[in-house]
Amino acid sequence: xxxxxRATTDAAGRFVITDNDSHNIRLAAEKPDFxxxxxIPVRLYFRAQDIELREPLVLSGAS
Length: 63
What we know:
- The protein has one domain (1-47).
- The chain contains no helices and four strands.
- β2 and β3 form a beta hairpin.
- The protein starts with 23 loop residues before the first strand and ends in a 20-residue tail after the last strand.
- The strands form two sheets. A two-stranded antiparallel ribbon has the order 1-4.
- The chain is mostly beta strands.
């Protein structure tokens, strides 16, 4: 089983993952008692790469 790093968003919805050790990651968002987003694959050229998602992660309970 692989460890899954976690991050918390700021007021603008930005987040930073500081302990990623992979070039091929999957991102998902969740909020207790509200819902979770589908996991999306993200391929990085290098582990410390900064990226912006093309689309926001949308929680299943969001309208």
